[in-house]
Fold this protein.
Amino acid sequence: MGYAGLTLSCTSITSFPPSTQPAVPPEPVTAGRLRYVGHATVDLEVGGTRVVTDPVLRARIGPLRRYGARPDPGILDAADVIAVSHLHHDHLDLPSLRRFPPDIPVIVPRGAGALAARAGAREVLELVVGEEVVVGDLTVRAVPAEHDDRRGPLGPSARPLGYVFESHGLRAYFAGDTDLFAGMAELRPLDLALLPVWGWGPTLGAGHMDPAAAARALDILRPGLAIPIHWGTFFPVGLRRLRPGRLTGPPVDFAQRARSEAPGVPVQVLQPGGETLFGPEGDL
């Protein structure tokens, strides 16, 4: 299935581009690296391959204003692949996608390919739960997410996804936007879990995890390290003064709950723009 001359595939295991596959396996990589750009945007390096999740790089999205550190423009040329979890505007932002070089592969849920192609992406791959794609040394597996599937009242729909990224023995889980779901324990073992702990406003709707739910998910997943995401970045204009705690409080609440819900599982709260390492030798 193609969009504007782009090749899309829904096979269970697909590699692209073939020329990036090394003839000789590289030396093992003992630690991964990540930068929390903000909201659900993470610049993640696993086994030497750079993934950018749900890139939203603008200062405003409709009524939402960006707070905190602005995204480093270096993210645009460093990415090897982009992974988009679902269709909502705060996760699939076409103006942000247009800033990346058009030859970077973009992975999306099945049904979202046409939107990614409108942003200029030349290689778009649609996945459903259980399918995999290989980019260089990185295997990307689509996993379930419990969240609304619509772009808007009149827009397209596509079943949301999370992703597990694996390379050189490292496994990192990006939840996207989700509530708890059956089968979450099957994602283990994990070196890293990127877990949403809030949203972009004073309240949460269905299909999200608040700090309490995220702490329960942490106990199920038991990763080597957990990083709370989906907080501290976007908030409706004019509401910050009325509800300032909703912008900064959720990750602190999550970390506190995690100590009792998932004792022994490390949690690190990164401010937008913050970096850390993960994996066997992941201590900074």
